[in-house]
Amino acid sequence: MSKPEPTDVEHEVKSVDLIVSKSDEEGNITYVNPIFIKISGYSQASLLEKPHAILRHPDMPKVIFKYLWKNIKEGNDVVAYVKNLCADGGFYWVLATVKMAKNPDGSFRNYMSTRRCITQSAKQTISDLYAEWLSIEKSEGQEAAEAAFNSYLADNGITDSSSFNEYMKNINK
Ligand SMILES: Cc1cc2nc3c(=O)[nH]c(=O)nc-3n(C[C@H](O)[C@H](O)[C@H](O)COP(=O)(O)O)c2cc1C
Known about the structure:
The protein has a domain at 19-118: Beta-Lactamase, CATH 3.30.450. The chain contains six helices and five strands. It has helices spanning 34-40, 44-47, 62-73, 120-140, 142-155, 161-171; strands at 19-23, 29-32, 78-85, 91-102, 108-116. A five-stranded antiparallel β-sheet has the order 2-1-5-4-3. The site of flavin mononucleotide has 16 residues, from strand 1, strand 3 and strand 5.
């Protein structure tokens, strides 16, 4: 499926909306709830078995997804801001909590993401931050973007995934 051309049209996520999806170990979508389908603008059939990257917006820096995958694979929950691309090229911002669910025997069951709306001030703060990392990624490369990301974590006393999650949640207050 070809990706839509991004536009400046923002799709509203309401405070009651809880946008849920589940995936397999590779991030391929195995479940989406009705609000996920509605806001993304894709049909359920065109989402299932597709990679979550179908929603990837070009304004998202790679460092966030690298951090996300490293942590969820280790079984750590991640709370992160995500700008997603809709089927019509529009976008929506969410604060996602992504985690691994396990079977009773401890084996992998799925990854799950639950996404909620974010405040205007969080949108501003995070879009500036992501734009900075993305610009470093484009001009100096991935390693330099990771160095900028890691020094941001260190400067803000973020030492592990719990302090990362708390810090991110606080931005949305
Ligand atoms: C449960 C789950 C939910 C995800 N949700 C999103 C999402 O809403 N938007 C997104 O761009 N990536 C999401 N991802 C991350 C994607 O798998 C992928 O890493 C990301 O889109 C970057 O794609 P790329 O690595 O192909 O550049 C999710 C991953 C998992 C495991």
